[in-house]
């Protein structure tokens, strides 16, 4: 499965001249390329070699989606101002000196989608100013432990969708790294201490691997971590050890695993957590203290777990919750909640609810969207939404009530039984 990459921020300088119509017909601009005094965009230009005569003042050079195979260092030697180089989706073979001539200026380098199986050990030895590096969508299986050691200013590293089966201690020297993408590899576990050299990490994505266990203390040095994504792995349990030192964690996702229970007090003290996704696991019940300790929680997804029953006061302390997803949770009666005064969206799709009581939304004064599609709702009690003045849409697609006379005469106009929402 392919993983999306966070490239929008780094591409802003690339798109800026194009968005404002600042495209010139420079005399030396290669055919099928777009050129400005500081940019040459030759993506999808059917190139088999890097064009000669690139303007000396070029800062952004995009050569993505061509047929390039070799890079001669000399072709870049006059580009003293080059800060962004895009070489994605070619068929490149690299040498240790491929980027030596732009090492003093290059800040961002996109090498994704080139089918690399390995990289020269000294490839980045002279690109010490690099802050953004994309190596995703290759076939890298093992990287030299010192390959990134000279990149002391690197903040973003994407190794997603490769063939990594183990992580060598390759992050030594990357003390400024704040985003590390490792999704879509074949990692069965993560070695103890491998993340210790990157204490400023804020985003760690380990989704779509084969991880079933994480060693205790793995994240002890990641005290600045905000986002931890462990979706689509082979976990059967969540260990307390994961959270011991993650005092700044805001987004935690462990969906699409095989977790059977949530240990008591697992999230105790996780006051910073704002987004939690435990959907598509094997949960059958929730501990009595869950999620009472998550007072800053704004988004909670428990869908595709056969929980069956949601106590009324379960979310009484989660007053900041705005989005709650309980689709496919084996509910037979609609949950009546307390404390969810700020809830904006509630989805309870694909359950076995038969009757919608008039008190259902009384404690959700700010609710705007309610999805009850694909249940077995045959009756909506009168004035079910009378106390809620903000709700604009109630999706009832796939419920028997949609074909009843009651639905035709119901006073609330936000009911939607259409097949397309």
UniProtKB/TrEMBL annotation:
SMART domains: LRR_BAC, LRR_SD22, LRR_TYP, LRRNT. This is LRRNT domain-containing protein. Keywords: Leucine-rich repeat, Repeat, Signal. Residues 1-25 form the signal peptide. InterPro entries: Leu-rich_rpt, Leu-rich_rpt_typical-subtyp, LRR_dom_sf, LRRNT. It comes from the Eukaryota. Pfam families: LRR_8. The keyword Mitochondrion does not apply. Residues 28-60 form the LRRNT domain. It comes from Mauremys mutica (yellowpond turtle).
């Amino acid at each position: 499965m392919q993983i999306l990459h966070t490239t929008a921020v780094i591409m802003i300088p690339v798109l800026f001249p194009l968005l404002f119509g600042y495209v010139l017909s420079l005399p030396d601009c290669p055919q099928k390329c777009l050129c400005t005094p500081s940019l040459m965009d030759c993506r999808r230009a059917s190139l088999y070699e890097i064009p000669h005569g690139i303007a000396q003042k070029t800062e952004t050079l995009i050569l993505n989606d061509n047929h390039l195979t070799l890079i001669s260092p000399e072709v870049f030697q006059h580009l003293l101002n080059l800060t962004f180089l895009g070489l994605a989706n070619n068929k490149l073979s690299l040498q240790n000196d491929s980027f030596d001539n732009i090492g003093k200026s290059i800040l961002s380098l996109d090498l994704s989608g080139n089918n690399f199986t390995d990289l020269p050990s000294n490839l980045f030895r002279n690109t010490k100013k690099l802050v953004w590096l994309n190596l995703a969508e290759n076939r890298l299986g093992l990287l030299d432990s010192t390959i990134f050691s000279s990149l002391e200013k690197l903040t973003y590293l994407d190794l997603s969708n490769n063939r990594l089966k183990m992580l060598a201690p390759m992050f030594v020297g990357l003390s400024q790294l704040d985003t590390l993408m490792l999704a879509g590899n074949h990692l069965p576990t993560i070695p103890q201490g491998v993340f210790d050299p990157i204490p400023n990490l804020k985003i760690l994505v380990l989704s779509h691997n084969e991880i079933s266990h994480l060693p205790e203390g793995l994240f002890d040095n990641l005290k600045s971590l905000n986002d931890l994504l462990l979706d689509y792995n082979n976990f059967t349990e969540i260990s307390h050890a994961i959270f011991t030192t993650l005092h700044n964690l805001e987004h935690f996702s462990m969906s699409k695993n095989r977790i059977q229970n949530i240990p008591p007090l697992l999230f105790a003290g996780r006051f910073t957590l704002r987004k939690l996704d435990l959907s598509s696991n094997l949960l059958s019940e929730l501990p009595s203290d869950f999620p009472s300790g998550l007072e800053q929680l704004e988004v909670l997804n428990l869908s595709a777990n056969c929980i069956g029953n949601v106590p009324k006061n379960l979310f009484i302390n989660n007053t900041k919750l705005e989005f709650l997803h309980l689709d496919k949770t084996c509910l037979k009666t609609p949950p009546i909640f307390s404390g969810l005064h700020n809830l904006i969206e509630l989805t309870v799709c694909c359950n076995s609810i038969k009757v919608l009581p008039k008190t259902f939304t009384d404690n959700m004064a700010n609710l705007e969207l309610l999805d009850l599609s694909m249940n077995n709702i045959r009756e909506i009690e009168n004035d079910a939404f009378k106390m809620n003045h903000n709700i604009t849409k109630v999706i009832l697609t796939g419920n028997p009530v949609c074909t009843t006379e009651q639905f035709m005469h119901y006073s609330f106009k936000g009911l939607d039984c259409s097949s397309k929402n």
